[in-house]
Amino acid sequence: MNSRERVRRILDHKTADRIPIDLGSMRSSGISTIAYNNLKKKLGIENASQSRMYDFIQQLAFPDEQIMKLFNVDVIDAGQGFLKLEEDWKDWTLNDGSGCRIPAFLNIEIDRNGTVYLLHPDGTRLGRKPVSSFYVDQCYWIWGDLPSIPAKFDDTELSKHVWAVPSPPSHLDIFNEEQFEEFVSGIRDLYENTEYSIVLSVGCNMFETGTFLRGLANFMIDAYTDKKGTAYLLDRLVEGNLVKLEKIISGVGEYVDLLQFGDDLGGQSGPFMSPDIYKEVFKPRHKKMWDFVHDNSNCRVFLHSCGSIYELLPGLIDAGLDVLNPVQTTSRDMEPERLKKQFGRDIIFWGGGCNTRDVLSSGTPGQVREDVKRRIDVLGKDGGMVFNQIHNILADVPPENIIAMFEAAYESGR
Predict the structure, then answer these.
(1) CATH class for domain 3-86+143-412?
(2) DSSP calls for 125-167
(3) Rounded to whole angstroms, how far apart are CA atoms 42 and 33?
(4) Is the pTM of this model over 0.85?
């Protein structure tokens, strides 16, 4: 059974020869470039400075083929089909002094204090990374100072935030026919020349986009007190997303197994909204997009949502959710046993495989192995799981623990 076959078996809620393994198939299942460089050094792999830090905001590296084979990885980010030329990348120095390469298309400014800014094409500073920080934080909210969602706005305003800074392949304009052909060709080549299951991140955020434009507190209030404005904004987003999804599916739907949506709907202690507000405001829009995916392709709907979203899962499943990530079992009501028992027949758990908060960064390799085995025994029983740690591997994770995690995932998942 090859990787693509293995993943598809699991997506069909069947058992496979082993549990599939993911490292870096999307921007919340990956590895910090600092941690990645340390891992390559530990493994004796040369040219760590050539690590490709494709996601500047979270400082994430594309895993190389050598690492993916070593750790028995089954899934690949569609973005790995792009930026193949030397001139597509430029040199960068990380916080620990090690080197890497970043996409040449990024628009970056550094002030005299060493603070790094990610810029909009018009020069607006969208994100900021102080010298002491390992990540870029949003620093501009286009509607943040307004009393409410504006009654009229231009579509260009909807992407004027730091999370719209592209990572491949979203650096391409798929509505430009030449770039669309490049988009299709890159993903088709991955499909034809590898055996990986392919994940394509499409974003299509709704709640998150509201927070990117208004700020979290403002948009949470909007959802309760300005339902007309919220509905208008979300409907505009869905309208644009459906056009985007139609174009994507027409070009690469036959090559991609999962379309990855993003919408962080919960915090550590519970969801950002009540189940009733989710069902009234957000569920109909999720359902409209996810029904379109299911009606027009064989792709599965993959949702990344951090936090405690136990109370929202029935509504999400009813809207058409197939796959949940990162399965943040360290938040309230998200215990692996509870999730598997109540929702294991309905969704695939993509993540939850290692406690990144308390074990992966500060535990021993032995503790990491025990944590992985226990979680696989629960979430992976009778299928229904793709192994991944809970969210990204951060910069401070020792390479010994990363190795122990993936070795345990392979051994325990067979």
Answers:
(1) alpha beta
(2) EEEEE-TT-SS-EE---TTTTSSS--SS--GGGGG-SGGGS--
(3) 14
(4) yes
